[in-house]
Amino acid sequence: RRLHQFAHHPLTATMDQCQTLLGAADIFEFKDTLFFKVDVPGLTKADIKVRVADGNLQVTGARVHETSDANYLHSERQFGHFSRVFKLPVAANLAKISAVCDHGVLTISVPKAGETQPALHEHVAVASAEEEGDGALNSIFASVPVSVFPTPALGKLVVLESTMSLAEALRTLAQYKILAAPVLDVTKPIEASWTERYPGFLDMVTIVFHMLEKLHPDTPPEDFEKEVAAVAEFNSTTVGDALKFSQSAPFVPLDAHTGTLLDAMLLCGQHALRRVPVIKTGTGLVNVVTQSALVQTLAANLPKFSAVSHKTLIELGLGSPATVHSVRSDQKLRAAFQLIKQHDISAVPVLDSETGQICGNVSARDVRLIATSTKVYKLLNMPIRLYLDVVSDGAANSAITCKPEDTMETVITRLVHSRIHRIYVVDGEDHIIRVVSLRNVLRKFVKEPQGFFGTFFN
Fold first, then answer.
1. Taking the CB of residue 16, how many other CB atoms lie within 10 A of it?
2. More confident residue, 288 or 52
């Protein structure tokens, strides 16, 4: 299979060409820490991003071709995007993960979590939730070209320029009612590779990372003038610089002519990409396919997928209790954003501080309201209950729920109707037992064939 991928001149380089961009890796354990050593010859820390999500350690980045007017007589070195994923065998202390790049070797230290290990049923629940579909529907998805997704009206695809301020970018996202957009590095020439021209997506999770890094809500400024100055600095940061404060969503495009619905389903489901750009040779970036758009496609064609949609969450491994990162309604709003940052997730449920029942939801999209306010510190330190009742948009912060006995069809219908990206599974007393995300839904309908993406995802 081919993605529309990242070599310097040919825009359809195969995944196997990316294998040489990262060297060999060693994994070893010492006391309470896991160590990952990866050879990264010729790369610096600025070229590499490290993130942890869904129990995986991911190393991504790009080896950029030097700009030169020289006439090359011979060239063997490989350039472009790379990605390698390691499954973490134990719970990790995400707050204390560190990475050092020195003399061409990347060393990642992953301390083990200090708390008691989850019960056995939680490990089983996670494993069953991560199980793919059986592959019986693969041929249906593979027969549908990715071009079936409608392109933005009047060809207007929202792209953020790297030199825009964060405040401008937030206004643009709000204007078009979207949660993310690709970032174009305006300093790169038109003939540069896709990874050079598009360093990633600016999304709400990225902005949360940057906000917590810049504003330090735990220790707000001592006086109003310093507070105003800190907020002004945050808003004036360029989009390009903001991407450096988090593990930005990678730019992994599909070719508009050869890409299929199966490609998009696997990238957004099995490989946890929240959105996939679509590239057309000679035209450029023409579309962005999101997890939400894929679930909407499933909703419109549910009769074709009854083998999966008629099964209950229990039958699909999504009905058992699992670890849920949540906040109480009496906690401050910043606690929710800190969880989003720490676990690289897009939202957390809010539990009533007295009953323990779910009463709302705080997501990364709330940062649009927070970051554009003149009272950022006041909002971040506001009790979540007050924020939900007085400040937020009620619909956007509502929490949709289901029961373990509900079918996948019911779950998809509720997700699409509410336009919310997750549903909370609750027990008979309305206590939350797990989260079902769009990614969880997508991966139950497809199975990745062996070697489908070559060695790109290792």
1. 11
2. 288
End-to-end CA distance of the chain: 14
CB-CB contact of 81 with 252 (8 Å)? yes
Radius of gyration of the chain, Cα coordinates, nearest whole angstrom: 22
Residue found by looking up tokens 């509720």 in the block? 414
Q: Find all residues with CB under 8 Å of 199, minimum gap 6, and list them.
A: 62, 162, 183, 185, 240, 243, 248, 251
Question: What stretches of 254-379 adopt beta strand conformation (E)?
Answer: 254-255, 275-280, 284-290, 327-328, 347-351, 358-363
pLDDT tens-place string over residues 8-38:
332 333 334 444 566 788 888 887 888 888 8
Cβ distance 456 to 20 under 8 Å?
no
Mean local confidence (pLDDT), 92-120: 72
- Helix axis angle for 261-268 and 291-300, nearest 10°, is 120
- The per-residue pLDDT for 8 is 33
Q: 116 falls in which pLDDT band (50, 70, 90)? A: very low
147 or 375, greater pLDDT: 147
Three-state DSSP state, 50 = strand
DSSP state of 305: G
Token pair of 75 as six digits: 């060239």
Distance in angstroms (rounded) separating the CA atoms of residues 139 and 307: 14
What local confidence, expressed as pLDDT, does residue 234 receive?
73
Q: What is the pTM of this model?
A: 0.72
HSE-CB for 42 with a 13 A CA cutoff: 12
pLDDT digit string (tens) for 394-422? 666 788 999 999 999 999 999 999 988 99
Q: Which long-range contacts (CB under 8 A, 24 or more apart) does 335-343 make?
A: 335/384, 336/362, 336/384, 337/208, 337/211, 337/212, 337/217, 337/362, 337/367, 337/380, 338/212, 340/205, 340/208, 340/364, 341/205, 341/208, 341/209, 341/212, 341/246, 342/94, 342/95, 343/53, 343/94
**Beta strands in 194-313, from DSSP E residues, in sequence order:** 200-203, 254-255, 275-280, 284-290
Give the full edge-to-edge strand order of the sheet including 25-30: 25-30, 33-39, 105-111, 98-102
